[in-house]
Amino acid sequence: MKVTVDTNVLLRTVVADDPDQAVVASGLFTQAETIAIGLQTLTELVWVLRSSYGVARDDISSVIRTIMDTEKVVLDRAAVDAGLACLEAGGDFADGIIAHQGAWLGSDTFVSFDRKAVKVLAELGQQTQLLA
Length: 132
Hints:
Elements: E1 2-4, H1 7-15, H2 19-31, E2 34-36, H3 39-51, H4 57-68, E3 73-74, H5 77-88, H6 93-104, E4 110-112, H7 115-123, E5 128-130
Parallel strand pairs: 1-2, 2-3, 4-5
Helix pairs in contact: 1-2, 1-3, 4-5, 5-6
């Protein structure tokens, strides 16, 4: 079976806060032939781990890298790498993905009112513009 997992499936696997659902989710990872994970799913996972569970950036980065390294998992590696670079530099995972996808779509400049996002992305070599 080839599956696309929702954020709650990843969350149960990562935090195992519901033992019964954690067993089912882990079983799915064992049984599935392919596990597709969308960017929105990973973005939600990062947000929930940070806001609801208070997980540190480094630990979230490790979780995402473990997921990426799972043989059966397919995802947009370049976009996830961009999100991780931003997260690990002190920014938001989502901002890294947004900037990456924008460049992929032909943009040459990331623009935002978010000073931190602009600063972090500029430090990562992105062309940025802070809107006032």
